[in-house]
């Protein structure tokens, strides 16, 4: 049985799962023509899942220590290879091939971009006390440590924001009261604005046509009669035109704002309705608990929080991943490869962080595999970035919340 | 109450297919230099000469309402978009010839527009309620336009054209395939220009039909 689980079948399963997920969720409405992107994403996803799976095996004690060790090593090498070599090169290649000037020597320029990336990537290691001097240049620890820094920063930022945003979204205390008549009023204003734009544009079209028919077209001002005409005809026609055009531009900007405000109100109304349902109430309660925990975490009380924090960090990670992927689906014509790279870094650093939250006894094998990295540094770095991110999110949301109600006080 | 003073045609399609470029080309006979993402809805006016050269010649202003967004948008966006679908006289469905999904999504777009004869919050629009009952047999005229024609590789052209022919049969609509960065596709007298004129004439025909039916209803 253990051999079966070890086998490539599992890997292929995860690979296939990643592929399916990618196809269905991310690109439901759009077509992705580059198969390389799909393959790379699926590989990253598959191997990341395998890493999580290995952690669970570690805790449960399944498989022999030797085979687990082997799989850890294999996984890490593959992921690092993809993250540091394949993905940046492909991104560089894609960007370069989009710039017409460099089209000819695509490969060459992609290599240049990759070397630049590697230079900055290496430099990243200098300000941080992450290595002890006895490691060689190309050792795995060098690479992991750098990937770790990037990933930990990203994760701390996201968790900080998520920790603040999640209670804000789900707790009904923060929901502004929106009535149907508010929405109706806004929609009426939007409709009126569109009608005004239409009538002004008709006037512009009509005036232009009349000007053309009377031969006032500027390109036709030649000859004697042309000069006479340009002197005697009132200049007001074209001045009028530019005046109306300015009004139209202002109205169009207004219509866009009204549209966005209406969407916002509709979304709030839906959230209010959702909060009245059973699911909504459940999340509301969860939101209160969650916010209490987040506040607690922000002030860093280290009690027997290890076990709780392991579970909760896991939840935060999962919801952040979900939020991240949802945000990605909203980005319309995004360059597909840009989705892959942060994702991979994210997954690798998730391992590091899970290690942080894991109870002491399970840390041994992770330490053994990842070498002697300075884990304490990562913990402190995560806490700092988490704190910064959470506080700035609070500030940001407070400002946004304050600003919104005043806009809907229509006279 | 339908009236010939307003002829409203929706331009629908996925993000990035080229609706804004198309509308600009139709209204100004010029290529749009800097297309950007449409937020909400952008309207433009096309001057159309009905029965040009005949004694019945009349000039109409056709409003082209270019609605932005995608079929998979959040329901809050969809209910707000419904404001633009009031009293529509014709629909131009735009899809990207290099992107199959955009063609498939057109069915959802047409459903979204045709099912919304008034917005869910019941806004009453000043230029009339469109009475759907009377027009069960006469649906709103549709026109199918495929963009980015120049970007299809030579060997795939026939497949793409066959596919769009099926699509136009589905919608019972005329189809035009073009490249929005090239004004010659709508040059006067070209087959595309003729198809376009026919479409707008059909739109006006249905409006006149609506007016006459309403007149008989009053009596």
Radius of gyration of chain A: 29 Å
- Describe the strand arrangement of the main beta sheet of chain B, using strand numbers: 2-3-1-4-5-6
Element string of chain B (H = helix, E = strand): EHEEHEHEHEH
| % residues in beta strands of chain A | under 5%
The class by helix and strand makeup of chain B works out as alpha/beta
Mean pLDDT of chain A: 66
Distance between the termini of chain A: 73 Å
Derived structural class of chain A: mainly alpha
The coarse silhouette of chain B is globular
User: Largest sheet of chain B, if any?
Assistant: 6 strands, mixed
Overall helicity of chain A: over 70%
> Could you report the average pLDDT of chain B, rounded to the nearest whole number?
75
Q: Calculate the terminal CA-CA distance of chain B, rounded to whole Å.
A: 15 Å
Q: Main β-sheet of chain A, in a few words?
A: none
How much helix, percentage-wise, in residues of chain B?
25-40%
Cα Rg of chain B: 17 Å
Family (chain B): Belongs to the small GTPase superfamily. Rab family.
GO molecular function, one term (chain B): GTP binding
Protein name (chain B): Rab-like protein 3
Keywords (chain B): GTP-binding, Nucleotide-binding
Could you characterize the architecture of this molecule?
The complex is a heterodimer of chains A (411) and B (219). Chain A has 411 residues and is an all-alpha fold. In chain A, 80% of the residues lie in helices and 0% in strands. Chain A has helices spanning 2-6, 8-26, 35-60, 65-98, 106-123, 140-170, 180-213, 223-232, 236-276, 278-298, 305-330, 337-357, 363-370, 375-407. In chain A, helix 6 runs parallel beside helix 14. Chain A is extended. Mean pLDDT of chain A is 66; it is low at 132-138, 329-343, 356-362 and 406-411. Chain B is α/β, with parallel strands linked by helices and 219 residues long. Chain B has helices spanning 19-28, 75-81, 100-114, 157-171, 191-218, and strands at residues 7-12, 41-50, 58-67, 90-96, 142-147, 174-177. A six-stranded mixed sheet of chain B has the order 2-3-1-4-5-6, with helices on both faces. In chain B, helix 4 links the parallel strand 5 and strand 6. The longest helix of chain B is centred in the last third of the chain and has 28 residues, at 191-218. Chain B is globular and about 55 Å long. Mean pLDDT of chain B is 75; it is low at 117-138. Chain A binds chain B through residues 28-31, 180, 183-184, 187-188, 190-191, 194-195, 197-198, 201-202, 204-206, 209, 252, 255-256, 258-260, 262-264, 266-267, 269-270, 332-333, and chain B through 6, 14-16, 27, 37, 39-47, 59, 61, 63, 65, 70-72, 74-77, 79-80, 83-84, 86, 99-102, 105, 119, 121-123, 125-126.
């Amino acid at each position: 049985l253990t051999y079966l689980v070890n086998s490539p079948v599992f890997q292929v399963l995860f690979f296939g799962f990643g592929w399916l997920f990618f196809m269905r969720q991310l690109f439901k409405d759009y077509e992705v023509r580059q198969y390389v992107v799909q393959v790379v994403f699926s590989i990253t996803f598959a191997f990341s899942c395998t890493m999580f799976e290995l952690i669970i095996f570690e805790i449960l004690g399944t498989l022999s220590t030797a085979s687990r060790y082997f799989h850890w090593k294999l996984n890490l090498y593959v992921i690092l290879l993809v993250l540091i070599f394949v993905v940046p090169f492909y991104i560089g290649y894609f960007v370069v091939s989009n710039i017409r000037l460099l089209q000819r020597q695509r490969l060459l320029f992609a290599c240049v971009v990759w070397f630049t990336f590697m230079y900055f990537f290496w430099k990243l290691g200098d300000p941080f006390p992450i290595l002890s001097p006895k490691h060689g240049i190309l050792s795995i620890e060098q690479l992991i440590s750098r990937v770790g820094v990037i990933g930990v920063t990203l994760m701390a930022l996201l968790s900080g924001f998520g920790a603040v945003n999640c209670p804000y979204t789900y707790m009904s205390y923060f929901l502004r009261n929106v009535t149907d008549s508010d929405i109706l009023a806004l929609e009426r204003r939007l409709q009126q604005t569109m009608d005004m734009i239409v009538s002004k544009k008709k006037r512009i079209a009509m005036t232009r046509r009349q000007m053309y028919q009377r031969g006032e077209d500027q390109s036709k001002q030649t000859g004697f009669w042309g000069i006479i005409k340009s002197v005697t005809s009132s200049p007001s026609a074209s001045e009028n035109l530019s005046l109306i055009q300015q009004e139209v531009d202002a109205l169009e900007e207004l219509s866009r704002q009204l549209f966005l405000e209406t969407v916002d109100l509709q979304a709030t109304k839906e959230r209010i309705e959702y909060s009245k349902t059973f699911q909504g109430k459940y999340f509301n309660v969860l939101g209160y608990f969650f916010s209490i925990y987040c506040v607690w975490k922000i002030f860093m009380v280290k009690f027997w929080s290890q076990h709780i924090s392991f579970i909760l960090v896991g939840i935060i990670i999962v919801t952040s991943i979900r939020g991240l992927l949802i945000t990605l689906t909203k980005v319309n014509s995004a360059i597909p490869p840009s989705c892959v790279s942060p994702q991979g870094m994210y997954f690798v650093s998730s391992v590091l962080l899970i290690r942080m939250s894991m109870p002491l006894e399970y840390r041994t094998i992770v330490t053994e595999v990842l070498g002697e990295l300075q884990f304490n540094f990562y913990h402190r770095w995560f806490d700092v970035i988490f704190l910064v991110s959470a506080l700035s999110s609070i500030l940001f949301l407070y400002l946004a919340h304050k600003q919104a109600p005043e806009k809907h006080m229509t006279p | 109450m339908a009236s010939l003073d307003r002829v409203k045609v929706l331009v629908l399609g996925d993000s990035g297919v080229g609706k804004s470029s198309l509308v600009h080309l139709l209204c100004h006979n010029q290529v749009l230099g800097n297309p950007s993402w449409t937020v909400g809805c952008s309207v433009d006016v096309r001057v159309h000469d009905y029965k040009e050269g005949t004694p019945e010649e009349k000039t109409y202003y056709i409003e082209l309402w270019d609605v932005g967004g995608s079929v998979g948008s959040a329901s809050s966006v969809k209910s707000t978009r419904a404001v633009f679908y009031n009293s529509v006289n014709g629909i131009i469905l735009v899809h990207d010839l290099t992107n199959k999904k955009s063609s498939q999504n057109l069915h959802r777009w047409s459903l979204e527009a045709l099912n919304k004869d008034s917005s869910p919050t019941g806004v009453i629009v000043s230029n009339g309620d469109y009475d759907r009952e009377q027009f069960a047999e006469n649906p709103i005229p549709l026109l199918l336009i495929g963009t980015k024609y120049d970007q299809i590789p030579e060997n795939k052209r026939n497949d793409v054209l066959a596919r769009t022919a099926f699509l136009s049969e589905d919608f019972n609509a005329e189809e035009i395939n073009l490249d929005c960065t090239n004004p010659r596709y709508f040059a006067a007298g070209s087959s595309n220009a003729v198809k376009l004129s026919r479409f707008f004439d059909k739109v006006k025909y249905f409006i006149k039909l609506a007016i006459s039916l309403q007149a008989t209803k009053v009596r």
